[in-house]
Design brief:
alpha+beta; 2 helices; 35% helix; five-stranded mixed β-sheet; 113 residues
Length: 113
């Protein structure tokens, strides 16, 4: 079966919204699909798409061919994930390096016998 990763159009007239799907190449654009792996909203500027990068890589390893638009979305999302990943690591390091204030040691209880 020839599998492709492509856009499936949704939304109202003059306000398109797309889902990134894995589908058989022979099925219609808005027809049957195998899996939804992301979204794309062209009306929003900036970061306007989300993708499950691990699922994209899985399907590409199985031979799925992304469309031109999806290929550019994959590239943008991988780049965004790469820049966000070091920032998350530095935040974790900062949290671990700051010691939490500890309570003063408790005085030993003396036995009055």
């Amino acid at each position: 079966m020839a599998v492709s990763i492509r856009l499936r159009r949704e939304g109202a007239k003059n306000s398109p919204y797309y889902k990134v799907v894995v589908a058989d190449r022979r099925s219609p654009r808005d027809g049957k699909f195998i899996e939804i792996i992301g979204t794309y909203d062209p009306k929003i500027s900036g970061r306007n798409s989300t993708l499950k990068i691990d699922r994209v890589e899985y399907w590409i390893s199985k031979g799925a061919q992304p469309s031109d638009t999806v290929r550019s979305l994959i590239k943008k999302n991988k780049k965004a994930a790469a820049t966000a990943e070091p920032a998350a690591k530095t935040e974790q390091n900062e949290q671990q390096s700051v010691p939490e204030p500890s309570s003063p040691p408790a005085a030993p209880a003396e036995d009055a016998s």
